[in-house]
């Protein structure tokens, strides 16, 4: 960077190589190298703070929840070490608009809410099944209990459809559903397809039941997506 305006040691303007300008800084900051270019992608080579009113820290110098959600989103999509542990995220991206923390923070202020006794999570594919892009139009905050309903754990499933396992002892296919941290067997079937459709019926009903339980707390668009959600054999 270079100093482009010098009004005194306590009032300088600097310009970075990408033409970004910052105003009313001190010469001591310039000498110490502590002036940050807010347009430079410091988070996984993609995310940058941007120029605006949204800060990283609260007045008590604690990291804002907003920044934690944004940083975690960028990290999941673009951190190589994370992608090695969760390879499905290699296909997931963040829209260009949200590379800028200021834009995400503005959306966050308008869309974040809380549910009693729940951890809130940012979801990208309940509203639009199969979506692979984090963006203002596709994302919604959801209670962890709801988000867990849609966790598929594809890396651990094996060769059978979702909700289906094979029992060597019975020589049959089991339809199973997990909720309240318990795995419940729905029934035994001679074909994996029959087992899946039994699971599908129970799973969709369970999602609707949870949607109605949380209806008073969650956005209408999330409620409708849950009510209309269909489990597919290709999931």
Plain-language structure description:
The strands form four sheets. The chain has a three-stranded antiparallel sheet with strand order 1-2-3. Strands 8-9-10 form a three-stranded antiparallel sheet, with helices on one face. A two-stranded parallel sheet has the order 4-6. The radius of gyration is 24 Å and the shape is elongated. The N and C termini lie far apart (51 Å). It folds into three domains: 1-37, no CATH class; 40-147, no CATH class; 149-227, GCC-box Binding Domain, CATH 3.30.730. It has 235 residues and is of the alpha+beta class. The chain has helices at residues 27-32, 65-78, 80-85, 101-111, 144-149, 192-214, 220-227, and strands at 2-6, 12-15, 21-25, 93-94, 120-123, 133-134, 140-143, 164-167, 172-179, 182-189. The longest helix is centred in the C-terminal third of the chain and has 23 residues, at 192-214. The model has no long low-confidence stretch (mean pLDDT 93).
């Amino acid at each position: 960077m270079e100093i482009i305006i010098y009004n005194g040691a306590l009032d300088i303007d600097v310009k970075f190589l990408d033409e970004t300008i910052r105003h009313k800084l001190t010469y001591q900051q310039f000498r110490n190298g502590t002036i940050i270019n807010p347009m430079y992608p410091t988070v996984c080579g993609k995310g940058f703070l941007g120029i605006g009113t949204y800060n990283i820290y609260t007045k008590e110098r604690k990291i804002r929840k907003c920044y934690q959600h944004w940083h975690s989103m960028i990290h999941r999509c673009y951190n190589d070490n994370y992608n090695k542990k969760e390879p499905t995220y290699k296909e997931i991206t963040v829209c260009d608009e949200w590379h800028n923390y200021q834009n995400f923070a503005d959306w966050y202020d308008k869309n974040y809410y809380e549910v009693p006794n729940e951890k809130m999570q940012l979801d990208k594919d309940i509203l639009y099944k199969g979506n692979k892009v984090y963006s203002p139009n596709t994302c919604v905050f959801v209670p962890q209990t709801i988000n867990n309903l849609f966790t598929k754990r594809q890396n651990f499933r094996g060769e059978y459809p979702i909700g289906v396992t094979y029992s060597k002892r019975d020589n049959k296919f089991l339809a199973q559903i997990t909720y309240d941290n318990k795995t419940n067997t729905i029934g035994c079937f001679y074909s994996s397809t029959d087992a899946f459709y039994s699971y599908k019926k129970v799973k969709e009903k369970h999602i609707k039941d949870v949607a109605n339980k949380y209806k008073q707390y969650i956005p209408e668009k999330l409620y409708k997506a849950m009510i209309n959600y269909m489990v597919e054999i290709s999931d």
